[in-house]
Amino acid sequence: MDVENYIKVYEDIVDDNLCDALMLADFGYKPSTFANHSGNKTTDRVIMDDFWIQQDNNFYNPLKECYIRAVRQYEFEFPRFMCEHITDFRINKYGTGGYMSEHVDNIHHSHGQKWGYPHVSALLYLNDNYEGGEFVVAGKKIKPNKGSSVIFPSSFVYPHEAREVIEGTRWSVVAWLM
Description:
Layout: E1 8-10, H1 16-24, E2 30-31, E3 34-35, E4 41-42, E5 46-47, E6 49-53, H2 60-77, E7 89-94, E8 99-103, E9 120-125, E10 131-132, E11 135-137, E12 140-142, E13 149-153, E14 160-162, E15 165-167, E16 170-177
Antiparallel strand pairs: 1-13, 2-6, 3-4, 5-8, 6-7, 7-16, 8-14, 9-13, 9-16, 10-15, 11-12, 11-14
């Protein structure tokens, strides 16, 4: 099977009202950092603000329901994949000039995982009214619609990036599934 077959886009995963509420919420975003293999944090590989949505946040359960909807579709297509755990959710806010350089999600403990390495990375897209900011995974360029989800394996075969936002603000939520 071609690696692109494991990259899935699912439409209508997040309700428009939830998308809008998340973008309007005042979470107290902070500039994101990128940890290298030695654990040192740097800002030269990412320009975005982020906030972690954890279980004590009112948005946690509605987001978890969205992830479960998307995961069930992925599990249906790939019966050997089974999700036993979803990490907390990081909401990403890329303003004009924002980007995340190419990387792979072979992370372990830097994002609160206590279950081991992620099997699948899953993104929810809260808007599509921006220029640039394309998501590229394993060479495949994707411009997701508002409310959609992109799911793909977290291994070295799936390098991915968020291209620079030319105009507007690009909003997404990411979690890792184990």
